[in-house]
Design brief:
Layout lengths: L8 E2 L3 H10 L7 E2 L1 H10 L5 H12 L7 E2 L3 H10 L4 E2 L1
Antiparallel strand pairs: 1-4, 2-3
Helix pairs in contact: 1-4, 2-3, 3-4
Length: about 90
Amino acid sequence: MVRTSVPKKIPPTEEVLRDIFKKYDANGDGRLSKAELKDAFRHLGSRMPGWRASRGIHHADVNGDGFVSEEELSELVNYAKKHGYSVSK
């Protein structure tokens, strides 16, 4: 019998999640738009990345400008961890 290895899902550290979200800042402006967050949540395995992006902005966007800034990123990371997002190893 041949066994194939299935990628393990591990809970990411806050630093790993932070780096993943920063990677999706496509235009490099230091803020995450809904479209950029949608791509990030898709990468994290969300079945509804658009909805999750909207909820992430709702939870993290303290100043109400419609984006998640560097200063607000910790709230987004907390939101993602709370909802059990993991990365493949």
